[in-house]
Design a protein that fits this description.
Blueprint lengths: L9 E7 L2 E8 L6 H15 L9 E6 L10 E10 L19 E5 L14 E8 L10 E8 L4 E8 L7 H10 L2
Antiparallel strand pairs: 1-2, 2-4, 3-4, 3-5, 5-6, 6-7, 7-8
Length: about 180
């Protein structure tokens, strides 16, 4: 992704124990909701890889870097846990230190494709929490795609009510005090 000042947003997925663990972000962070939707498209495509994401998983945007970061790294997007089940992310888990963004990725076995002719479709949502009483709107993007790169849904919006969509409602619950 390259838009602002010719500095690209570079994304490198990484895994541990055969599972998608997160993404290293280099160059710069996505600057707006549209760029976050592009990031989400890459993440959703990774979620279509068989076995890489076993269940719907929450990822947290972290501006902190590991001890020995790659050159140009600006932060990470790390898997925090499944949406439900053992080791699930808990309501209010991120209330103390609200992240700049939360993402949920759903592997193909967890969703029903919106288009009947598509199979092995994964989906995801990124919530960029705002502070509405200060005039900073909540923003979000949604993507649905298959492993061949076919996109059946890609939407980005500002000024959302997080409780009007199931994914944004769940993500908002994790940052609510």
């Amino acid at each position: 992704m390259q838009d602002r000042d010719d500095v690209s947003v570079e994304v490198s997925p990484f895994q541990a124990h055969g599972r998608l663990s997160g993404f290293m972000v280099s160059g710069r962070w996505p600057a707006n909701t549209v760029e976050w939707a592009r990031f989400l498209l890459l993440a959703v495509r990774m979620a279509t890889v068989p076995g890489l994401l076993p269940t719907s998983t929450v990822f947290r945007v972290r501006e902190e870097l590991p001890e020995k970061p790659l050159p140009g790294a600006v932060g990470m997007v790390l898997a925090e846990g499944p949406v439900v089940g053992e080791n699930a992310v808990l309501p209010g888990q991120f209330a103390r230190h609200q992240p700049p963004g939360l993402i949920v990725l759903h592997p193909p076995n967890e969703i029903r494709p919106s288009l009947p002719e598509q199979d092995d479709v994964a989906a995801g949502c990124v919530l960029l929490p705002g502070i509405p009483h200060l005039g900073l709107e909540h923003r979000a993007a949604w993507v649905e795609a298959d492993r061949r790169g076919n996109i059946s849904r890609m939407v980005s919006r500002a000024g959302i009510d997080p409780y009007e969509d199931a994914d944004t409602a769940v993500l908002a619950l994790f940052v609510a005090a």
